[in-house]
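Entry: Phytanoyl-CoA dioxygenase
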Amino acid sequence: MMQLHENLFSQLKDQGVVVLPDLIISEQLSAIRYAFECQLQQPSFNAWQGYHQTDRRRLMVDQLLTVEQGFVDVVLLSLLQILVKRYLGESACLQEAKGWQSLPFKDDFHPLHRDEWYCRDHYNEQKKPMSLKLGLYLDDVDSGAFAYIPGSHRDVRDEHGIIDEQSPPTLVTGKAGTVFLFDPEGLHQQSFPNFKKRNAAFFHFFTSDIVLSQNFIRWGRFRQLLIESSYLHSCTPEQLAFLGIGRQPSTHPIEIQHFRWARRSINGLVRGINEGQYWFQRVQARLNRR
């Protein structure tokens, strides 16, 4: 077991991405897949959760630790905790848990990038903070797979200061239940084309003392990590800390920016739908009494 840990950590440190061995049992996978699909049945207005659409190709589901016990169990896998704490330090913990459905597409709509989660101006002349993300496929993936440029997390540059982005990416394909860990400072993307809808979950780990990107703070990202309390009944203090219990609360208010120009029209439409549903139920109840 120790040799397995060492091999996985060495690959993560050297390549920036590593596929973990099969960790999720079939019953657990079935439960989280069903719960995730339920969230995709309706947009998140006038109902508990649901999805929201961040761009044309993705339907986003936030706060996965409120959706199903299995998502909490994935975060608490002992192998994952060992690798994350060894890579980031003992104080690293979960900061975000979300997933999305990727719709079919043929173009490179999501090009190679590094995640902008921390304030790059603050760390311009300092050592850059580190984080790790865990990816979990909820469907079989043979197209539109996660792609990662091996070694790009080390920020190796040539004499002109340019990163070689031409090295072939590592494609993470696999069956539902495939779990992989990667350093988001490396260049990555969802490859293309993507021929069918697919669901995936992602979890972000880092320490709580990092100065975050103002862009994400304004939108409320990383401000809240919600967990269904009944999922925590058997957790140890160490596990609770790894789940983010004990994080310092954010003092930044959320600035809602989605569709500001159309907010009044959208609100009117939603209220019209609610009013129509009310009158439909009244008529239905009266007919049932006859």
